[in-house]
Amino acid sequence: MSAPAASTVTFESRFATELAEMAIPWKAEEVPAPRLLVLNEPLAAELGLDPEFLASPEGLPLLTGNAVPDGATPVAQAYSGHQFGWFAPRLGDGRALLLGEVSDVEGRLRDIHLKGSGRTPFARGGDGFAVVGPMLREYIVSEAMHALGIPTTRSLAVVATDRSVQRETVLPGAVLTRVASSHLRVGSFQYARVAGDEGLLRRLADHAIARHYPDTAEADKPYLAFFDAVISAQASLVARWMLVGFIHGVMNTDNMAISGETIDYGPCAFMDAFDPATVYSSIDENGRYAYANQPLIAEWNLTRLAEALLPLFDDDEERAVEQAQESLAAFREQYSGAWFAGMKAKLGLDGSVADDAASPVIDELLALLKAGRLDYTSFFRRLGTVARGNAQPAGDPAAEPDGLVAWAGRWRALNPDAALMDRVNPAYVPRNHLVEEALSSATGGDLDPLRRLLEAVTDPYNERPGVERYAEAAPESFGPYRTFCGT
User: Which of 109, 183, 381, 414 is least enclosed by beta carbons within 10 angstroms?
Assistant: First the structure.
């Protein structure tokens, strides 16, 4: 079945053509009675797609993979991955399909990708389907991350399938249509390396360079320059996660995108009370992917990427290892620099404030936040008001940890810029209790809480009347909170 003429965007199949060894042509399962739950109209326009067409009975099959556009070759992508530290040589898209690539209105190549489109040869024991709640979670959180200025895959649409899917209970099915710079992962390179085909590994690296880091192709050592670029992108990305209190929840190597975009929103969450040991994922029993561990895991994942790329760095393995180690040594400095600069901005400390003056103020604050278990997002947003001399640091004198008021006096002596703070400290993030409220209502057929939450979190820095509850911390009755991957 071909898409009707109203779908005028031209699809390409570069991944399927250039890396055929890593792509299995496949068809999405036929969707019974598709029904649009949410459509990202601004993103559709950015892609050159007509939102009105996508929402029509003719457009919905495009969003679910049941109408294949001209030029598209839907494929399940192959990749490996370390999952909670254990290597699986053959993972791949078990319930997902890459429909193809499109050039957006600015000429950037973007993947159009499905999640929950049915079993593929990589499905192992899974049914290949997805349910409404987790697909809407990815929509909410990915669009909130985009609004926060954090590199991320995007969500174009969620379509209900009218299919019952067995999880802990029987739940309504859904398909997510996702958009990304690409779906190349650390695990993609691990797959090519395990295959023992250096030609494939080189073509994969060339494909990634052309797609994401074309300037590195001109370097004396292009593959090492490519690796350095990935390191820099990940150092910046994870620093941004940490600064907003985002916890990915499942940082397996197959969930780290080469592009430096946040990918695969499974058991993700935003931290409520500040605690570096916070874990929300129900499957992370040992806290491997706890909030504080995220920079360390990013470095660990990048080391796995280096291992996969070694044959491309140098013909001599010993020299290749030395070069990889030298590159990896830059990660901590780059991450620390990005995080520290971001934390200074959160405290309104501009370039006129020396780092050695800011550092003890930051260290002391983090210790106080942990001791008082203060709400991370609310505290930093409120601090802009404190900088203007209009509030207590914790908002409630009874909730002030010992030393916080004294700390605030020392911090204010550095002349913090309240306007800068308001630009970098969001008023609204997808708070866990509000996400759960929206997902529960949507699963039951009521989409209004979802729409209201999206309105708040997609304009996170503009504090405004009528959405006060979206800036409030979770009630004491909420928790302990656990998230689930939904597969």
Answer: 109
